[in-house]
């Protein structure tokens, strides 16, 4: 295998810039789907893949993979990210008192929600991360995302795309069978991913157009012990050295049960911030999901001895958004 090493021991921890640049160049997909592309690796999902995914439905069981959207959430204000604020603008009390102005006794309730688009279960859009001023497909970041939003790769382009075969890799259960939870700061390697696939069996094979869900167990720990530093603090997650695996498997998207997808603290002694994001979003065009609730799905998959399913995870078509809240569902 050519390209940067997939062994974390080979990382030069004093040179994050060099390690990031090597992987960005090696795994860059710019131009692969044309100069006008707005979907990146979501292009790997085609009609045949969706037909294959639909055939996986055997029981009609639907499992939501979303965390709650309420004030009891993980956000702590970093980059002005707050938890959702839900406000009732019309209530049953108003209806009882007849002050809504409707005829013939009809009443109603209305509400509004205010929240950052990435405060709970969500997709990162292709306009979310830049590399040296470049956005996905080699466009200048300032030409793509302005104060008017993402003018090119807004999340609305993916609204009818993200339905495919989902594959759960329960790395937490495989590597820590006693607890099902990886320790904060644990860097998941290619060897870990492949060992999990081997242990789970043929239904865990990963290939073109699949959406991979990686369960670390961190979300289960936070629900038991409290949020703590879930938002932005130490966490298990993918190692920078998995970038080559993410590229060659030709997966359409990937999501985890953690705040930031990749291992935190990041794997360098020098200053670094989300280096795997910097490689895979603007260079590879990979769609990333974070803060997914994978625990019920993991239990169901383990019980039936099967780890693939039909996955529907459409973003809201928010024009120009660089991310979107979602309620992904696995259909077994």
UniProtKB/TrEMBL annotation:
SUPFAM superfamilies xrefs: Putative cyclase (SSF102198)
Recorded coiled-coil stretches: none
InterPro entries documented for this protein: KFase/CYL, KFase_sf
Region Disordered, annotated ranges: 74-99
Protein name per Swiss-Prot or TrEMBL: Cyclase family protein
Organism: Microbacterium ureisolvens
């Amino acid at each position: 295998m050519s390209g940067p090493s997939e062994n974390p021991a080979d990382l030069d921890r004093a040179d994050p810039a060099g390690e990031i640049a090597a992987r960005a160049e090696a795994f860059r997909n710019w131009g692969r789907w044309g100069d006008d592309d707005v979907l990146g690796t979501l292009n790997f999902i085609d009609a045949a893949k969706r037909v294959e995914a639909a055939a996986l439905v055997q029981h009609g069981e639907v499992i939501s993979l979303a965390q709650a959207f309420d004030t009891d959430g993980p956000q702590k204000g970093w980059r002005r990210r707050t938890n959702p604020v839900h406000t009732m603008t019309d209530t049953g009390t108003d209806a009882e008192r007849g002050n809504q102005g409707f005829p013939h006794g009809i009443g109603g309730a209305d509400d509004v929600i205010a929240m950052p688009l990435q405060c709970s279960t969500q997709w990162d859009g292709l306009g979310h991360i830049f590399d040296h001023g470049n956005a996905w497909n080699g466009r200048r970041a300032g030409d793509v995302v302005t104060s008017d939003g993402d003018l090119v790769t807004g999340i609305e382009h993916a609204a009818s795309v993200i339905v495919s075969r989902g594959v759960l890799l329960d790395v937490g259960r495989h590597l820590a069978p006693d607890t099902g939870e990886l320790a904060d700061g644990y860097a998941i390697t290619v060897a870990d991913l492949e060992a999990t696939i081997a242990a789970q069996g043929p239904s865990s094979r990963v290939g073109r157009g699949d959406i991979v869900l990686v369960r670390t167990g961190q979300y289960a720990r936070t629900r038991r012990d409290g949020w703590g530093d879930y938002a932005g603090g130490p966490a298990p997650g993918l190692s920078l050295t998995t970038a080559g695996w993410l590229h060659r498997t030709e997966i359409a998207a990937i999501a985890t049960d953690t705040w930031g997808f990749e291992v935190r603290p990041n794997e360098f002694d020098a200053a670094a911030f989300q280096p795997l994001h910097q490689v895979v979003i603007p260079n590879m065009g990979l769609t990333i999901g974070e803060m997914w609730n994978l625990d019920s799905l993991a239990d169901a998959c383990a019980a039936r001895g099967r780890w693939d399913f039909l996955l529907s995870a459409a973003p809201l078509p928010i024009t120009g958004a660089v991310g979107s809240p979602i309620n992904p569902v696995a259909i077994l």
